[in-house]
Amino acid sequence: MQYRLDDEASLCSIDILAQAVERICVKGVLELRMLRNALREAATSPTPDAVKFAFAMFSRVDGDYRRLIAHEALTLATEQRGRYAAPRPRTVRRPRML
What we know:
- The structure is a single chain.
- By secondary structure, the protein is an all-alpha fold.
- It has a domain of 53 residues.
- It is 63% helix and 0% strand.
- The longest helix has 17 residues.
- The model has no long low-confidence stretch (mean pLDDT 82).
């Protein structure tokens, strides 16, 4: 699988996923703590190896937790819509010539 880390959308996705795991992290569940740490590492140092490791950790988490994480990530993405988007260029309306 090819991982692209040169665009803002990928970095934003990693950050949102890390926040989602942080929100649903349950004390005593080792897989969630490992995933949280892997995502933190991928967010601070987005190398292909760090992202691959985070992806591997996510795939090891129980399916119910993965669904919870995905739901929380979608909620966060909706709340943060536009936070990472490039500013839209302002258009200037020119007066009509008669």
